[in-house]
C-alpha cells in the first residue's frame, strides 16, 4: 500500500511542498512565526479529524497514532504569539470523510509523512534561524529520532494490511483529499498575506 499511496499522491504532495515553500518563504524569525501560524490554522483540526477516525483501531508492529499539533501552540507561545492572535476568519476546507480503516490509513499516511518531513524542516530552521526544540521548534522536531522509527512502524502497518482493491482505493482517495485540503488552505493563506 505504501508504494501505491506514494505514486498516487506524488504530484499533490509536490504541489503542497511548492505552495508551502519553507526555504523561499521563511527568511526570518517573523516569517517562521507566520509559517507556524499557517500550519496552526489547519493541522490541529486535521489531526483531530484523523485521530478520531482511528480512536478505536488497534494496529500491529507497535504503531500508535499520536497527537503532535499541541506543539504548534507551544512553539507559537515561545515565539511570543498570544492566543488571541490564533483565530482565523477563513473557513477550513472540507476534510476527507474517513469511513473505513483504509481511508483513515490514507489520511494517516499524509500526517505521518508530514511529521517525517518536519524533521528535515527542523534541521533547516535550526541552521538558518537558530530555532531550537525548546524555543519554537518542538513541532518540527517532533519526537526526534523516534519520528523515523514511528514512520517505519507505520509503513509496516501499511504493508501488512490485507490487499483489496476497494480498500486501496479508499486509502488513496483519503490521502489525495487530505493533500488537497492542505493545498487549498495554504493557497488561501498565502493569498491573504
Task: Note the topology.
Elements: H1 2-20, H2 22-25, H3 29-53, H4 70-78, H5 101-129, H6 138-141, H7 146-160, H8 165-192
Quick rundown:
The protein has 193 residues and is mostly helical.
Descriptors for this entry?
mainly alpha; Heme Oxygenase, Chain A; 69% helix
Number of strands: 0
Overall geometric form: globular
The CATH homologous superfamily name equals Heme oxygenase-like
Number of domains: 1
Query: Structural class, from helix and strand content?
Result: mainly alpha
- Which fold name fills CATH's third level, the topology? Heme Oxygenase, Chain A
Low-confidence stretches: none
Q: How large is the share of residues in beta strands? A: under 5%
| Average pLDDT reading | 92
Largest sheet: none
What is the H/E order? HHHHHHHH
Give the % helix: 55-70%
Number of helices: 8
Secondary-structure arrangement, i.e. CATH architecture: Up-down Bundle
Write down the Rg: 16 Å
- Cα distance spanning the termini: 38 Å
What is the class in the CATH system? Mainly Alpha
